[in-house]
Design goal:
The chain is α/β, with parallel strands linked by helices. It folds into two domains: about 1-105 and about 260-365, Isopropylmalate Dehydrogenase, CATH 3.40.718; about 120-260, Isopropylmalate Dehydrogenase (3-Layer(aba) Sandwich), CATH 3.40.718. Helices cover about 40% and strands about 20% of the residues. It has twelve helices and 14 strands. It has helices at about 15-30, 45-50, 55-65, 90-100, 125, 165-180, 195-210, 225-230, 245-260, 300-310, 315-330, 350-360, and strands spanning about 1-10, 35-40, 70-75, 105-110, 130-135, 145-150, 155-160, 185-190, 215-220, 240, 265-270, 280-285, 335, 345. Strands 2-1-3-12-11-4-5-10-8-9 form a ten-stranded mixed beta sheet, with helices on both faces. The protein has a two-stranded antiparallel sheet with strand order 6-7. The longest helix has 20 residues, at about 15-30. It is globular. The two termini are about 20 Å apart. It binds 3-isopropylmalic acid and magnesium ion (MG). Magnesium ion (MG) binds near residues 248 and 252.
């Protein structure tokens, strides 16, 4: 089959890890006989430097006309003190999510047993963790209006507005329920209904939508309690659904379970995970300016994001699994980038780690 894939490497380590994920996709296309047409476009700081805006129209149009977007990471100290908020690299990601309607952010957290010693959380707590966090991505305090800052007689003031509609909540809960159906059929909704009226509505709508899924066991947890449970008792969770800001924070927190943020992929979808929706696929890590250009960044998060791309936007489940197996096998063979190195393992750079994965895909070692 033939597919169009937009490649937006972005800044710092972004282009380095994205190039490896693209190589992995090329290996998949050769082995399984698909035709992937890749087109690169600038985004973030790279686009600011080239054309003066973080998300050029050409880049957005390319994304609109693609089946999926492979994304790296954006931002870096060079652009940090841009005085205009809308001219910061991170703004590109928010505009992409909004313009493309990418409302469902899937962030699986499934630590590799082999790397259990890399987490600061005790191995017996981490063991068996397999969570799918479903983060709402185009609402909440990120996008609510008004959003402004101004000067009052008492001093400066700024307002972000927390806003959720029934429709926005219902559609993200449906995504979570569909995923729960494919997994252990347990759904936890994280809210702050004891303090925020938006989360009261959230909880109500969650209950209503879940009534359509009687096979799914629903529970509710308050966000502060969840922040504690996710690192003290992570195996009690299967699918977790929450709003934009909580989802942002808790997925970084959950990444400590995996041992390195360099391991975790994400998918941002414009529809249900069962329907080959347009999606943007990116590591959950940032642009890591401190290690950029050194060839040592861990490409696994980007490679696993490519696997999610195959699964959710192209509907190629067998191919997605082949990539995931190849990554597990590469770790199993003892290859480690610096962030997950341990005594007795073979330390490799970005390129070599990806090459090991590609070899295993090409030789059908799965
Ligand atoms: C993420 C990032 C973004 C977010 C930033 C870069 C705006 O932290 O994708 O998790 O907050 O959503
Ligand atoms: Mg984040």
């Amino acid at each position: 089959m033939s597919f169009k894939i937009a490649v937006l490497g972005g800044d710092c380590v972004g282009p380095e890890v994205t190039a490896e994920a693209q190589r992995v996709l090329v290996a998949v296309s050769k082995r399984f006989g698909h035709d992937f047409l890749f087109t690169e476009a600038p985004v973030g700081g790279a686009a600011l430097d080239a054309v003066g805006v973080p998300l050029p129209d050409e880049t957005l149009n390319l994304c609109r006309n693609s089946d999926a977007i492979l994304f790296g990471s954006i931002g870096g100290p060079r652009w940090d003190d841009n005085s205009r908020f809308d001219l910061r690299p991170g703004q590109a990601l928010l505009s992409l999510r909004e313009s493309l309607g990418l409302f469902a952010n899937l962030r699986p957290v499934k630590p590799y047993p082999l790397l259990a010693d890399k987490s600061p959380v005790r191995p017996e707590v981490v063991r068996g963790t397999d969570i799918m966090v479903v983060r709402e991505l185009t609402g909440d305090v990120y996008f609510g209006q008004p959003k402004k800052r101004w000067v009052t007689p008492e001093g400066r003031r700024a307002v972000d507005t927390m806003d959720y509609s029934e429709r926005e909540i219902a559609r993200i809960v449906r995504v979570a329920c569909e995923l729960a159906r494919q997994r252990k059929k347990r759904l936890t909704s994280v809210d702050k209904s004891n303090a925020l009226i938006t989360y009261r509505l959230w909880k109500e709508v969650v209950i209503e939508v879940c009534a359509e899924y009687p096979d799914i066991e629903l529970s509710h947890i308050l966000a502060d309690n969840f922040a504690m449970q996710i690192v003290s008792n992570p195996t009690r969770f299967d699918v977790v659904v929450t709003g934009n800001l909580f989802g942002d924070i808790f997925t970084d927190e959950a990444s400590v379970l995996a041992g390195s943020i360099g391991l975790l992929p994400s998918a941002s979808l414009a529809g249900l995970p069962t329907g080959r929706a347009l999606g943007l696929y990116e590591p959950i890590h940032g642009s890591a300016p401190d290690i950029a250009g050194k060839g040592i960044a861990n490409p696994i998060a980007a490679i696993l994001s490519a696997a999610l791309l195959l699964r959710y936007s192209l509907g190629l489940e067998k191919e997605a699994r082949a990539v995931e197996h190849a990554v597990s096998a590469t770790l199993g063979a003892g290859y480690r980038t610096a962030d997950i190195a341990s005594p007795g393992s073979t330390q490799v750079g970005t390129r070599e780690m990806a090459r090991q994965v590609i070899d295993r895909i090409s030789t059908k070692e799965d």
